[in-house]
Amino acid sequence: MCSHQPPCLTPEGARRHSAVVVTAHPEQGWSLLCDGTLVFDDTGELLPDGRVVDPHRVPGPPVVAV
Length: 66
Prior knowledge:
By secondary structure, the chain is mainly β. Helices cover 0% and strands 24% of the residues. It is built from no helices and 5 strands. Strands 1-2-3-4-5 form a 5-stranded antiparallel sheet, with no helix packed on it.
């Protein structure tokens, strides 16, 4: 699916997040990468082979009410 040079790494690689966004739908909360991976705003992913990567957000600083 990746047509630019040099081609992106495969979705199985550790650096799969370096793939280029082909289609973005921020209003729906997802983007399609050139390696066929769907990435979601909640940091979850759907790999081209159907495997699911659970969201992996890093917790932010605690909110302190004043």
